[in-house]
């Protein structure tokens, strides 16, 4: 596959996936989802890759879904069908979680919506001190996708996950570390160095041990709890319902028009 929105490089046992589409802050549209799925599969089977790093740009890890695309469809009177996209991004997050190699998310700037969910799919998150994590879906009348609600509830518990998903408030890097889903916080100018140092340490470690530790934790936390079933049987239909509401159209329009949404509950 020709990569248009991200890069895949391997050096010294470290595979680096860099989302690099600043035009829309690395929003995860169908093209980005296809490319992510391709490189996740490539990294899994790459004999030169012992550790995987996924990162964005300094301004944004990923701003989530491409709201501008949805807004254009709404204004044109087109039908919004997210089912295919939701299925694709779920495959990406499940691929990272079930991968036999350890995954580090290097996060700077905005990690919103699906971008937040994608970061949660890593085994370790190292965040710069300017990072903001936002389960932003509710702000435009949607539910979390890309595994977000499931992953967050597993990480920080039901009540805290409910707060972040239902309020859509931003969480700074230090609070994220206190909540337990961020491994380490560093000054933004030190992020690349900190990630590289940790990745090199893991790349030099016992790979079979890492693989089997990850298999144990995935099985205990996700496979036995039917993560894939959740993605297919809960996440896709609930997002399908929300994406066909007037509230979603209003939420998208308000976001793009920089005004407060007026939700009607229909």
**Strand residue percentage:** 15-25%
Radius of gyration, CA atoms, in whole angstroms: 18 Å
Number of strands: 10
How many helices? Answer: 11
SSE succession: EEHEEHHEEHEEHHEHEHHHH
Tell me the span between the first and last alpha carbons: 41 Å
- Look at the structure and name the CATH superfamily: 2-enoyl-CoA Hydratase, Chain A, domain 1
Mean pLDDT: 93
Descriptive terms for the model:
single chain, 266 residues, 2-enoyl-CoA Hydratase, Chain A, domain 1, four-stranded mixed sheet, 10 strands, 16% strand
Task: Provide the fold topology.
Elements: E1 6-11, E2 14-19, H1 30-45, E3 51-55, E4 60-62, H2 67-76, H3 83-98, E5 102-107, E6 110-112, H4 114-120, E7 124-128, E8 132-134, H5 148-156, H6 158-167, E9 170-172, H7 173-179, E10 184-186, H8 191-203, H9 207-223, H10 227-243, H11 246-256
Parallel strand pairs: 2-3, 3-5, 4-6, 5-7, 6-8, 7-10
Antiparallel strand pairs: 1-2, 8-9
Helix pairs in contact: 1-3, 2-11, 3-10, 4-5, 5-6
Provide a short characterization of the protein structure:
With 266 residues, the chain is an alpha/beta fold.
Polypeptide structure, described:
With about 270 residues, the protein is an alpha/beta fold. The protein has a single domain, classed as Alpha-Beta Complex (2-enoyl-CoA Hydratase, Chain A, domain 1). The protein has 11 helices and 10 strands. The strands form 2 sheets. A 6-stranded mixed sheet has the order 1-2-3-5-7-10, sandwiched between helices. Helix 4 crosses helix 5. It is globular.
